Amino acid sequence: MNNHSQSRLLLNLTIILFALILNWPQPTHAETIPMNAHAEKYGLGWECDKGYFEIKNTCQKIQTPKHGFLTNRSFGEGWDCLRGYKRDNKRCIAIKIPKNAFLDDSGNEWECERGYREQSGKCLKINIPKNAFLSPNTYEKGWECLRGFQAKNNKCIKIKVPENAYLDDGGYKVGWKCQRGFKANQEKCNPVILPANAHLDYSGNDWECDASYVKSLDTCLRP
């Protein structure tokens, strides 16, 4: 086949393809987009109008309860309750705010005022013992002891720091820690006795053998 024949064949195929495209059955607007819907801004699909939600390729009207409003979200039931109300099945009921409480940021729940904590649907006053202060964590006691004190039986007891020790906020049991070179023994800090060929370990409250030595009871020996 010469070049002239190839060009003529290609032209004929192009004409046939163009004719097929022009005569291809196009879906009508009514066939592709249901009632109460519109074409998506981006893409080839469709989405329901505001106030409607999709069910089985149709757009059904959202039934908004009293004290509710349309959310215009594509998930959920399409409505939510006004501030001061909360969901109760298909209704919005008024939130009963107890004494010493207020609506939270969501507007659909409440929380207790500072100095109070929730218990059985009420806001009870937090009793703060001496040498304590209000804590932001109201789920437990609602208060914490000042530095140098420990909570015990709903009181703040002064921590007795022995000689050669210091207050330790991480010491949840005793509240203090021995200085470097000393080791805790009950309520005291005794000096760490270093045997020959040993040094204080990373904690500073015990010892370990130098390199090339191994620990054997209270001594460091050559292996």
UniProtKB/TrEMBL annotation:
Gene3D superfamilies: Laminin. InterPro entries: Growth_fac_rcpt_cys_sf. This is MSP1 EGF domain 1. It comes from Candidatus Terasakiella magnetica.
